[in-house]
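Teaching assistant's notes for section 4

Start the section by putting this record on the projector. Ask students to predict, before seeing the second block, whether Outer membrane protein beta-barrel domain-containing protein will look compact or extended. Collect guesses on the board.
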Amino acid sequence: MNLMDKNLQLNVFVSDIFKQSKSKGQIYYTTGTHYFNNYYDARRLNLSATYTFGNKKIKGADRNVKFDEKNRAN
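Reveal the predicted structure now:
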């Protein structure tokens, strides 16, 4: 989303909003079995704002060069 004459940019990032970061399983040992069911809370919401200062155009980028002056160095 760009605001304030395209100088301000807002960004939103979300991760694991449905709580899907889970691990479940069994480990078999000679002495028995280990069962596990883990949930790692990896839900995240990031907000960022970027504001650009100054002139966006580079001075001299639109300068015209005559063809003769361009080939003079060759």
